[in-house]
Amino acid sequence: MIDVVAALILRNRNGQTEMMICQRPANKARGLLWEFVGGKIEPGETPRQALARECREELGVSVCIGLPFISVVHEYPDLTIRLSLFQTILPDGEIPKKLEHNDIRWILPEEIGQYSFCPADETVLEKIQREGLPRLSDLQAALFSLQDLPYRKFQVSLMPTVNPETVIGIRTPRLRAFAKSFSQTDGAISFLKELPHTYFEENNLHAFLIEQMSDYAQTIAALDTFLPYVDNWATCDSLSPKCFRKNHVELRKEIDRWLSSPHVYVVRFAIKTLMVEFLGDDFLPNDPERLAAFQTEEYYLQMMIAWYFATALVKRPDEILPFFRSGALDPKIRKMAVRKAKDSYRISKEQKELLNQL
Fold first, then answer.
1. 3-state class of 80 per DSSP?
2. Are 70 and 123 spatial neighbours (Cβ–Cβ below 8 Å)?
3. pTM score > 0.85 for this model?
4. What is the DSSP code (8-state) at residue 296?
C-alpha cells in the first residue's frame, strides 16, 4: 500500500467556502481527470511535511495545513493507495501556479458534478456533498497565516497531552503581537464567547486576551468561563493577568476556590498564581504549608507544586528550606523540586551543595 497525502485547499469568498481542484496532464495516468493536489509520502517524511513539499512542487506555494479531513483506501488495478486529506489554506500573497497540472479551479460543493475526478477521490467527494466543506473562520485563516511548520514539530513534542492535529504552530511572540491588535476589534468580544475552540493557538489567543483585561471582576469572570477548557500546561502557564498584582486581597479568595476545582489545569493555574503573585510582600507561611499537604497523583499538579517550591527557595530561602529538610514534601514532589532548583541560575552554589546533601 502506498501512502498518499493531499490538500483540501479552502478559501472563503463572497460568504461561501470554495475548494481548489487540479486537472492532471493528458500524458499521465488518469490524464485530464481532476484531483486534489498532493502525492506520495517519501521515506522519513511526516504527512504534513510531504504535503508541504507537494504543494511547493506542484503549485509553487507555501501552505498552512490544518486538521485532517478524511482518510480513505482505494484499489486501482495496478496499486493500492491510502489517501489522507488535510484542510489547507493559502496564506495571503501565495498564488498557485500550474507547474504540474493542466488547469486549476476553485469550485463550490454543488459544482462537483461538473467535473470528472480520479476514482480515489470519490469517497472524499461524497463526504463533501453530504456534509459540505469545513469552514475556516476569518480568525482561523489569520492564525494559519502565522504558521511555522518547523516550530510546530518542536512544539508538538513538548505537549504530549495535546492532540497534534490541533496545533497550528505559531511562535509565542507572534501570537502575542496578534492578540494585542486583535483585542482592539469587535471580533475579540465574540471570540471570547466561542468555547470550546478547535485549535491550541485559539486557546492561547483566548488566554492572551484575558491577560490584557484591566477590570478585575471582568477578568475573574472570563477566567471562570475559560479555565475549565484548558487541557495542557503550556496554555495554563502562559496566562498571567496583569490586573492581579493590584488585587491581591480579592485574588486570594479566588485561589482558594480554584484549588478545590475538579479540573486539573484550574488547580495548576491557582498554584502558579500563588507562585507568581504571592512570594513577595504578600507571602503567607500558610501558602507553602497547604501546598506541601496537597494530595494529588496528577503529574502536572505535582510538577507545578515542585516548581512553586523551587521558585520559593530562591525568593524566600529561610521559610522554604525547612520544607526540603523535613519530610513535609511528598518524596516525588521533593525530588522534582530539588532537580528544578539545581537547574536554576538563581540558586547559589552553597544552596545547590546543600540540596545535594539532602
1. strand
2. yes
3. no
4. -
Alpha helices per DSSP H over 47-98: 47-59
3-state SS assignment for residue 67: strand
**Letter for the amino acid at 293?**
A
Model confidence pLDDT, tens digit, residues 10-69? 988 888 899 999 999 999 888 899 999 999 999 999 999 999 999 999 999 988 888 899
* Measured distance CA(333)–CA(70) in Å, rounded: 43
Instruction: State the CB neighbour count (10 A cutoff) for residue 156.
Output: 17
CA distances in angstroms from 151 to 134, 177, 202, listed in the order given: 25, 17, 17
CATH number, domain 2-131:
3.90.79.10
What's the count of helices (H) and strands (E) in the chain, helices before strands? 16, 7
- Cell representation of residue 155: 512544539
Rounded Cα gap, residues 334 and 314, in angstroms = 15
Mean per-residue pLDDT over the chain, rounded: 92
The CATH code of the domain at 250-358 is 1.25.40
Look at residues 239, 179, 253 and name the one whose alpha carbon lies nearest to residue 211: 239
d(CA 259, CA 265): 10
Contacts 24+ apart (CB under 8 A), 139-142: 139/182, 139/187, 139/191, 139/202, 140/66, 140/198, 140/199, 140/202, 141/12, 141/89, 142/178
DSSP 276: H
Instruction: Map residue 238 onto helix, strand or coil.
Output: coil
Residue from 9, 61, 14 nearest 37 by CA: 9
Q: Is 307 in contact with 275 (CB distance < 8 Å)?
A: yes
* In the chain, where the domains are located: 2-131, 138-246, 250-358
Query: By the 8 A CB rule, do 269 and 222 touch?
Result: no
- Hunting for cell 500563588 — which residue is that? 274
**Per-residue pLDDT tens for 153-192?**
899 999 999 988 899 999 999 999 999 999 988 889 999 9
